[in-house]
Every structure is written in C-alpha cells, then in structure tokens.
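Hi, here's the filled form for the chain we discussed.

Project: internal
Contact: R.S.
Residues: 65
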Amino acid sequence: MPIPINDGAFAYLLARAGLTLTDAEQAELKAACDGIAAMAERVRKPRGRMAEPALTYGFADEDLQ
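And the returned structure, exactly as it came back:
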C-alpha cells in the first residue's frame, strides 16, 4: 500500500493547481488522492496474458436465439 500523501505535499499540489478549497473539500480530495495512489500501484504491476480481456467470443447456436 502506498504511503498516504502528507499535508505539505498536498498543500503544494493544491497551490500549484490554483485550487482554493474549503476544509471539507480538502479532506474529501485527500481521501480520494490516497485511493487513486493505491489504484495506480495495482495497475502498474506486470500481468500475464490471462489478465487481458477476451478479443473473441465463442457462442453456441442456442446462445444466439
């Protein structure tokens, strides 16, 4: 699990983006930021061929009726 963003880094990113948010909005965004970091860590791991979606589908005749 990634390390949660610290308050200083979070404030820097908000200032750089030019965002002025309420305390409630900042708390909500910070919680989402931690979730996005966790998602990015999962996505960046190498996966095998079986992780790819199917490119073709096989249907029996009874499936098409």
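Let me know if anything looks off before we file it.
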